[in-house]
Amino acid sequence: MAWYEEAVFYHIYPLGLTGAPKQNEYKEPVHRLNELLPWIRHIRDLGCSALYIGPLFESVGHGYETTDYRKLDCRLGTNGDLAAFVKECHAQGIRVVLDAVFNHTGRDFFAFRDLRQNRENSPYRDWYCNVNFYGNNEYNDGFSYDNWGGYNLLVKLNQRNPAVRDYFCELVRFWVSEFDIDGLRLDAADVLDFEFMKALRRTADSVKEDFWLMGEVIHGEYIRWANPEMLHAVTNYHLHKALWSGHNDHNYFEIAHTVKRLYDMGGCRPTGLGLYNFADNHDVERIMTKLHDKAHFLPVHILLYTLPGVPSVYYGSEFGIEGRKERGSDDALRPCLDLEECLKNAERRRLCDLLKALGKLRRETPALSYGHYRELCLTTGHYAFARELDGCSVLVTVNNENADKEFDLPAANASAYKGALRGTRIAAEGGRVRLNIGPDSGEIWLPVE
Predict the structure, then answer these.
(1) Which stretches of the chain drop beneath a pLDDT of 50?
(2) Which CATH number fits domain 372-447: 2.40.10.10, 2.40.50.140, 2.60.40.1180, 2.60.120.10?
(3) Rounded distance, CA 355 to CA 369, Å?
(4) pTM of the full predicted structure?
(5) What homologous superfamily is domain 3-368 in, according to CATH?
């Protein structure tokens, strides 16, 4: 069993959390990464066992227009700071996964600078896609090229070029040697070349035991990317969408059908596609902003922690903070936060304590990581399922309506069940158990020995 199969992730966008300047002036390093050291204990106390953090390396602005892959962004500090940060995470039992921006580079990356200077004579002209020396762009380069998302600031790499492939495979080895990281989240994996990802997988398998590759994939059949030849996991945007809209629309069919489709795609195995589940992240609005009824924060997170896949919490959402895209900017989704101030707020601490309880439960209940999924009850407003492992059947019940709901469910071989969040104990009769769930709520029921 690999560490990532039973992990609970915490996700940090470091340039935002530390309040770093929006633009990099390439001055002397400012050791802002060290300000995140107190967050490591918070991550551990939250019940998380892994941290996805990034982007981290030298860039112009938001971090995804990388200019130097071997140097920590000077707005965050030095390579020594990053090595020490990872070491402290490991000391507290936290694995570390970095953002890997391999689809495109910034315009200040050494290969693109050489291309601008030497044009047709540059040895790096084939490092980028569709370079056309008869074209031009808004930077007046005197040539055009493919980009990501329509932004010429993000220059599309030619991953089919063996030199590009070798450069980034060697970079992975450098990051493991220099910083001792445990995995990578591949940015824009849905547009990365498949052979390139296969080469990365071979590298990952050779550099460190259980080195994890997770890709950012929004649309499509996830099994195309998450398979033994390529990535261990992908971002589960299908479930992300279903979690908030399934509650806003009082439609648990959307969530349950999404889960079943992905579970079947993974071969009906609990760790089949290894999907990275999340309620929000640095690119989408906060879950508390999206929910019409804020009370649905509870059932959303019960599902996040109990459905097949690996759960993740985006920094600040454990405190119920809001964040909305404004005027095309993601800045509100990536705020600077003061941990101590967040913990002083009683309501924020209440939500945080809920996620602590869910994290502890996930860690102590193997069935939630490895148990087979079986749907037990489904209506627009009510949903129940079991996670079954070695004769242990954990029951999960959620209710998105504003009235009580009684579930009549199979008790498997348990004589009674106890609610993990509230401690309610219910005896089973005739192989069935009747479980009452309050409005806009949910519970995780553990069999009583």
Answers:
(1) none
(2) 2.60.40.1180
(3) 16
(4) 0.97
(5) Glycosidases (3.20.20.80)
